Amino acid sequence: MSFHRTLLAASIVAGLCMSATAWAQDSAQGSTAQDATQPAKAKTAAQKAEEAKATQLQGITVTGIRASLEKSLDTKRNADAVVEAITAEDIGKFPNTNVAEAMTTIPGVTIDRQFGQGDRVSIDGTDPSLNLTFLNGQPISQTPWQYGAQPNRGFDFTMLAPELVGRLEVYKSPEARLPEGSLGGTILLHTLEPLDLKANTLRGSFGVTYNDQAEKNRPAASLLYSWKNSDNTFGIITSAQHFEEKIDRQGLEIFGYSPVSKFSSSPAVAAGIANGSLNPNALVPNEVNSAYFQQDRKRDSVTLGMQFRPNEQWDVDFNSLYVRENFNNWNQSLYPFTSATPGNITSFNQGANGVITGGHVCGNDSPGCPAIAQNTFDSNVRKSIVKTTAFDLKSTYHGNGWSLGGAAGYSKADNNDMSQVAMEPVYAGGYTWNIRNGFSFDNPQAANNPANWHMNDTPGLGGWAGNYGVFKAQAKDTYAQLDFTKDFDGFINQLLIGGRYNRHEESMEQHVYGPNGPISLANLGTIGNTDTLGAFNGALAGSASHVQPDPGKEWAWVRATNGGNNDPGSYLNGTWKIVEKTSALYAQVDFASGPWHGNFGARYVHTATDGSGFSYSGVPLYPPPAGWWQTSSSTHNDVLPSLNVAYDVSQDLLLRFAAAKVIARAPYNMQVSNLFLNDSVLTGSGGNAKLSPYKSNNFSLSAEWYFAPQSVLAITGFYKKISNYIFVDSAVEQHYNSAKDNDPATFAKQVAQGLCTADGFCGYSVSRPRDTGAGKVKGASVSYQQPFGSTGFGLTASYTYADGTLDSGGALPYSSKNSYSLSPYYEKGPFSARLNYNWRSSYLAGGYIAGAPPATTGNYGDLGASLGYKLNEHVLFTLDGMNLTNEKYEQYLQTKDLPVATYSTGRRFMATVHVNL
Predict the structure, then answer these.
(1) Which domains does the chain carry?
(2) Residues 115-141: tens digit of each pLDDT
C-alpha cells in the first residue's frame, strides 16, 4: 500500500470531520411535509392515493439530505405493509455508482461486492435470486455479462444509474396486488415524472471516477430535461447518462484441496508420512493461483417518458429505457499446479488444523528433478456487450368511486457476442509456494522471460494454444395487467381486483472453436510483468509477462474462423432455452377504522415452464441428431393469501403485523439440463429440470416509534418458514473431456493421474441444484433515524440479525447472521457531508469458479464518504469515496484455514460538478 493512497483516504475522512466542526446550523431546517409525529388516520382510497402522489411530488422537489430522509420516513409510516423507502434528492448526496449501493442504509439490505461494486441485493437474509425488482411496475430483462456465468433471477443493479431513479420502496411483507415470486422482498423502482417537475427543468453533471489500485480515472456525465405545458396536462422527460469505471481486481485463488496421501509418489512426501512429520490426511492446495482481472466498464443509458392528463379522470403514462453496457475484460491467472506433478514435490510444510501451508516443487531448472513443473499461465481476453431495452404503457380511468387501469410492457436484453480467447502457456521451472502469500519461482529471471513460456511449440515442455469461445445470451419479458378498484365508506374502504400475465424467455448458446496452432509467448507478444500478489503485502510475489490483449485475440480469432473445430461438447452442454408463462388473479381489501388500517387478500397464480436442452450419452457430436434436443414441461398452481395490519397505539407509536404465503421460482438456468464444464480443473455446473418452486410462510411483527419530527426508532421481527428450499451442491459426474481432442498433452496427464480414462471420460465435480427440503430464516432488525436539533448533524443507523438455516443442517446462501449500517451526516448552508459504513458478517455464497463447491465469504465492511459544497442554487460540487478502508473480499471452505479466494479491488473516488437549472 503506497503512502499517497493512504493519505488521500485519510484526507477525505479528515475533511468530513473538519467541515462538520467548522459549521453550526443556525436553525432547524424547515419541512414541507406533514408532521411525521401525527398518527396515521383511517383514509378513503382517494385520500390515500392523493397522499401517495403528494409524497412522491415532495420527494422529488425538495432538496437536502434531511428533507429526503423525511420523505422516505413518510412513505414508511403511511404504508399498510412493512415497507422501507429511499426518496431521491434533486441532485443526490450518496456515495454510490449504482442503485444497489444507495440501498445499503435500508435495514436488512445487504449487497455482494465480488468485483468491488455492489451488484446483488439480499433482503432479510435471503438469496438475491429470491427477490424481485420492478422498474415502474415492469420486469426488466437481464442477461449475464461474465463469460461462463449463468442467468439468474437476481437483479443486477449495476445497470441502473442513480440518476434514473426518483424513489424506491422495498416491500418486506407482500400484498395480494403485488406480483408474486419473492421470498425476501419486492423492490419497486420509480423514475422521475415530468408533471411532477417544473417546466423546462434541466439538470446535468460531469465528473471523473478514479480507482487507486488501477491508478486510472474515467469520465462520467448525465443530462436530464423535462417539459410540460402550462395546463399541466402533458409532459415529456428525457435523460442520458454515461459512466465509466476502471476495475482492477488482484487476487489469490485455490482450485480445491487434496490429501497428502495423493502425493506419496514424491520420495520427500512418502518419507514424511513414514516418519510422522506429515499427516497423510492433511489437505494440500492443488495450486495457489495469482489472479489478475482488469475491466474498463462503461454504461450508457437513455430514457424517454411521457405523461398525458387530459382531465381529472384519465391518465396515460409511457416509459422507455435503453442501456448499453460494455463489460470487456482481461483476466489472466498464473497457477503452479502442485497436484499435476506430485513426484516433483521436495518439501511440504505441515501447518495447524490438518492443512499443508507451503512447500517446494522442483522443475527443469533443478538437477535430478524427475519431470518438468507445470506452471500454467491462463490468459483470457473477453468481449461482452449487454444491450437492454424496455417499453411500457399504462393508463387509468377514475370514475365516481371506482377506477379501471391497464398496463403492458416489453423488455429485452441480449449479449450476442460474449466471447473469450483462452490460451495457457506453460513454464517448466521450480517454485516455492505459501497458502497465504502465493509463490515465487526458483529462477525469477527465467520465469519472466516470455521465450520460456510455451504452447505446444517445443516437445516436452507442454502448454496449450487455447481456443476461441462464444456465448449468445438473450432474455425477453412481455407482460400485461388489468386492475379494477372500487371505493366504499366504512371499515372496508377499497376493493382491488385484477390479473397479470407475464411471459419470460431465456436462452443461451455456446460455441467453442479450436484448438489453435503452437506458439510461444514471445512470438505472440507481451506487455511486461505485473506483481499481482503485491496487493496482499506478502513475502512472496508471483508475476509473469502478460499477453497483449488485441494481438492475442486477433491470433485466436483468425484461427477459429478459418476452419477451427466447433467443439461438440461445448455446444451441447452450453445450449438451452426456457419459456416461463405465469397467469395470476388477485383480490385485495383495504380497511381502516379509528387506529386500525391495513389490507388482506389472496393471489392465485398458474406457472407453466418449458425447459429445453440437449440430452445425450456417450461421445458428443456436432451437429447433433435432432432427437437429442428435448423439452421438459412442468406446471404449478399456487394460492397465496396475505394479511397486513397496522395499529396506532398513540400519536407517535405504531404497531404492525404481517403474514403471507409466498413462492419464489428457481433461477432460469437451474430449470434446464444445461452443463458448463471446465476441462482443466474438472469442475462444472448444471441445471435440474425437476425442481419445484421455493415455498414459504412469512411472518413479521414491528413497532415504530416516531418520537420527534423526522425521527423514528423501529424494531421488526421476522420469521420465514420455507417448506421447499433449492440448494446447489456438488457431486462427481462422468463426462467427456474435450481436452482429449483439443489439448492431448493436458489430457494425457489427467489420465496418468487417474482422473480420466483413455476413452475421454473424466470425473467432474459438478454443482447442480437440488430440492433439499425445509429451511427457515428468523431474525430481527432495529433502525434509528434522527436529526440532532439545530446542530446540522443527524444519524441513520440499523442493525439486522438473520439466522438462515436448512432443517437438515447448514446455512442458507447469502444469509449474513449480523449486519449493520451507520450513516452520520452534516448539512449546513452550502456544506454537506455524509459517512456510510456498512458491515455484514460471513455468508455462504456461490463457488469462485464454475462448479466449485459453495464457499463462505468472510466478513466485509465498506466505508464510503461524500462531501458537498453548494456554490449557489444551481451549482453543487461533490467528492465521493468508496471502500476507503481498502477492504478485501475473502472466501474459504468452512474454515479460514482453507482459503479459496482473496481479492483486492482498491479504493474508488468520484469528483462531480452538478448543475440544476
Answers:
(1) 3-916 (2.40.170.20)
(2) 777 777 889 988 888 889 999 999 999
